[in-house]
Amino acid sequence: METNHILIVEDDKEIREGVQIYLQSQGYKVFQAADGIEGLEIIEKEEIHLAIVDIMMPRMDGIRMTMKLREKYDFPVIMLSAKSEEVDKITGLNIGADDYVTKPFTPMELMARVNSQLRRYRKFLEKLAPKENVHVIGGLEINEEAVEVTMDGNPVKLTPIEYKILLLLAKNPGRVFSAEEIYERVWQEKAINTDTIMVHVRNIREKIEIDPKNPKYLKVVWGVGYKIEKQP
Q: Is 165 helix (H, G, I), strand (E, B) or coil?
């Protein structure tokens, strides 16, 4: 299991080191910075999964630091604030902080916030990560594991042969396949009569295209073959 890297940016050395000891006891790798400038330097050099940032610090405060890091990074930021910094706390949330903890706080309270934000961040990254065996081209999505095809979120019913043809083309967007190559790959035998490919392509178009006569996805390259057009 990957170890999460947490950055503590706090000008009070005792608080900084106390939080580090507790986080390390929970299995996290911890980096320390005494102000926003040091914090940004560490972020540039290390992979950080979450930052705990004090609002009031010399040289660069937590508000300005959070604004700068949000220009490039989307990992969670938990702000530390004193009760007298209510306005700054609201400002921090508005400019990109994900949560806040008011001083004084207990280690258990901080850990609960850290764990909650890391769970949300993992789910966010999972959504961004490309799914294996799922091919997405514009509004067309083919899920190999479920053997399902959708267009703009709506299920598309294909015959087994239609599905195999579409999958072959969708796995290679932009590449032109001759009718002979499609036949040999789908039927796994020598192509003798490829007229059936034209019929299947027409049927697939009727099912996935808004205007089959002016297709957006499944196109004919006259005299060469067929392809799935790449989508922006």
A: helix
